[in-house]
Amino acid sequence: MPHPCGQPPLPPPRTWQHGRVTAATHSTLFPKVPETPDAVLDGLDPEQREVALALHGPVCVLAGAGTGKTRAITHRIAYGVRAGILQPATVLAVTFTNRAAGEMRGRLRQLGATGVQARTFHSAALRQLQYFWPKAVGGELPRLLERKVQLVSEAAARCQIRLDRNELRDATSEIEWAKVTQTVPADYPAAVAKALRDAPRDPAELSQIYSTYEQLKRDRSVIDFEDVLLLLVGILQDRADIADHVRGQYQHFVVDEYQDVSPLQQRLLDLWVGDRDDLCVVGDASQTIYSFTGATPDHLLNFRTRHPGATVVKLVRDYRSTPQVVHLANGLLSQASGRAADHRLELVSQRDKGPEPVYTEYGDEPTEAESTARRIRDLIAAGVPAGEIAVLYRVNSQSEVYEQALADAGVPYQLRGAERFFERAEVREAGTALRGAARAGGNDSLLDGAEDLASQVRAVLSTKGWTTRPPAGSGAVRDRWESLAALVRLAEDFEAARPGATLTDLVRELDERAAAQHAPTVQGVTLASLHAAKGLEWDAVFLVGLTEGMMPIAYAKTDEQVEEERRLLYVGITRARVHLSLSWALSRSPGGRASRRPTRFLNGLRPGSGAAGARGGAGGGGGIDRGTGRAGANRAPAVERKPRSPVRCRVCGRTLTDAGEMKLMRCEDCPSDMDEALYERLHDWRAAQAALLGQPDYCVFTEKTLMAIAETVPSTAGELVVIAGVGNRKLSRFGTDVLAICAGEAVGDGTGEGSGET
After folding, report:
1. Quick check: helix, strand or coil at residue 609?
2. pLDDT tens for residues 744-753?
3. Which terminus of the chain, N or C, has less C-beta within 10 A?
C-alpha cells in the first residue's frame, strides 16, 4: 500500500538489521545508478532513512562527524526526485566550498538525480545577480574583484597607514568580517567592541581603511565577493517581483554545514525561502570553526525556535573512525563548555577496533618533522596509500619543515589548497590527448595492441609522462605523474563498472566530472591546516605542533575563542579513520630551551596527564613516546638521539632560529664569503642530478643548502653532514660528489660514484 502522502512505506526493519547498511565512506567510484526510487534508500541506516523520507516541512539534521550527512541529504534529494515528489529544477542545495558542492553534484548524478542545482552561496547568488541586474539596475553587472588585497593596500596608503604583508591580510579579513555581519564602516569600531573581537589594529584606523576601500570600488565600478550577497539581498528586498520570480523557481532548499552560515548568508536564505517552510538544514555545532569569518552556530541552535514544527533527526553512528578515535573525540568534547557544547553529539563508532592514538613528545620541531616523515614512510611501506595520509597543523607557516622532511624521506606530498585537479596543466593536456585518440578511434597507431579501455588510456598518457613506475622523490615531476596516474586509475575503475565502455564514454565522463569538480584521488601525503581539512578524511592523520600558544592559538583570549580552538582540534581528530598520531615539540629549534607545554586540551586524555580521561570509558590508552619517533609498544626501541646543539652564526656567533638562516649557518645580513665559482659548479651538478632522478632541483639540495656548502667548503664527511639540509641520508647519496666538487675534482655528468640512489 502506498504511503498517504505519496511515499512508499519503509522497507521491513530486516533491511538494516541484516547488515545491508553501507559505510558512509569508501563508496564505489562508479556505483550502479539505482533502478527504482526505493533502491535509492538501500543501505541507509534508520536515521539516514528518516532524513531521506522527511521531504516536507522544515527539517533539521544534527549530524556528527563521520555519520554520513552528505549521504543522507543527497539520498533525500535523489529519492524525492526519483519518486516524483520533487522537481529537480526547483531544488537548490547550497554549501560553503566548491569541493563540497562538486561532491554533492557527483553523488546526485550517481543516484540518477540530474538537474538539481548544488552550489555555494556565492555561486548561486552570482548567477542570480547576473541574471537580474539588467532588469533591477540596468546595464552589465560590475566586474568582480577576484582578490581584494591590492585594493585594500591602496586604501591604506591613501589613509597614510603603512601595512606589512601580514597586517594587510588581517585588514582584508576584518573588512570581510564586517561585510558578512552587515556592518558599515562607520559602525565597525562599535561592532568590534560588542562582539569582543580582538581587532588586529586600532578599529578607528581599520574603519578608515574600510571606508576608503569601498570608495575605491565605487570609483572603479568593481564589486567583491561579499558585495555579491549584499547586492542580491538588496534587490530581493526592494523588488518584490524579482523575489517572487526566484521563489517560483526554487521551492525546496537544502543547506549543508548550516553551523557555518553568517548573518548575511542567513538573510539571503530567508529571502530565498520567503514565507514557505520547505527547508532542510544540516550541521553540527561542535564543528563550528569559522567564527572569525562571521560564521555562527546560533542559526542551527535556534532552528527549532524559529520553526516549532520542525522534524529533527540526529545522526550519531560514526562510520568513519575506529572506536579508539571516536573515544578520544568524545572525551575532548566532554570537557567543553558553552552553548555549542550543550548540544554536542555523542558519537558511536560502527567500525571494528583499531590501534590506539599515539602521543609523541619531541625536543624540537625539526626532530618532530623528521620523525613524522619516517613514520609516514613506514605506513606507506606497510600498505597505507600515500593519498590516505595527512599531516595537519594549526597555521600554514608550519608546513615548510614538513615539506622538507617529506622530500628528504622521498615521500610524495601535496599541499591542500593547490589548484583544482581539472585545472592542472597536465590534466588539461591529457584530456586533449584522450579526446584526439577518441576521435581517431582505430586509425590511431598509438592504440595498436591496446584492446581494452584502460590499456588505451595508459598508451595515450604514456606520451604525456605517465610510466608504470612512479619517479623517485617528490616535486613537480612526481606531481605531474600522480595526476596522470589518477586518470589511469579512474579509467580502470570506469571500465570495471561499465564493461564495454569506450574511450569516447570515458572522455564524456571526464567532462562531466570536470564540470562538477568531481576529481579523482591523487596519491600523495596531504599537508593541510586544520581549517582546510574540514570535510575531508584519511586512513592516517598526524596532528602536529600541539603546544600551548599554537593549540589553542596565542590570540585566543576569551572563553568562546578557546572553545572554538577545542572544536578545531576535534575536527582534526575526527578526520582519522584508523591511525591517529598527536605530537608536540618542547622547543622550536635544536638546542633551544624546552619551554613549551603540550596543549591543555589533551589534559586528562593523554596518558600521564591526570585522571580526567577515565570519564570517557575504556580504550583511552596509547602511550607517549618521548621523541624517538617510533611510537607503539610492539616496536623495537629506537636508538636515543643526542640532543642537538644550538645552531650559531659562524660570523657573529648569534643563536639562529630562522630555518633559512640555520641552513646558511649565518645571519641573513652577516657578510657572505661564498666561493662563487664553487657555487656555480654545485649548481650545475645539482641540475644534472635532478634530471637524472626525475626530481625538482630542490629535492637534491635547496638553494640555501647549496649556498651554505659553497660558503663553508667542507673537506670531510663530518664537515659536510653538519650543514643543515644535508644529514646522513643525503651524505650517503651525494656526499662523494659534493666533496669532490669542493676539492676541485671533476665528477662528470652527475653519474659519478656518489650519485643516484643507494
Report:
1. coil
2. 888 764 433 3
3. N
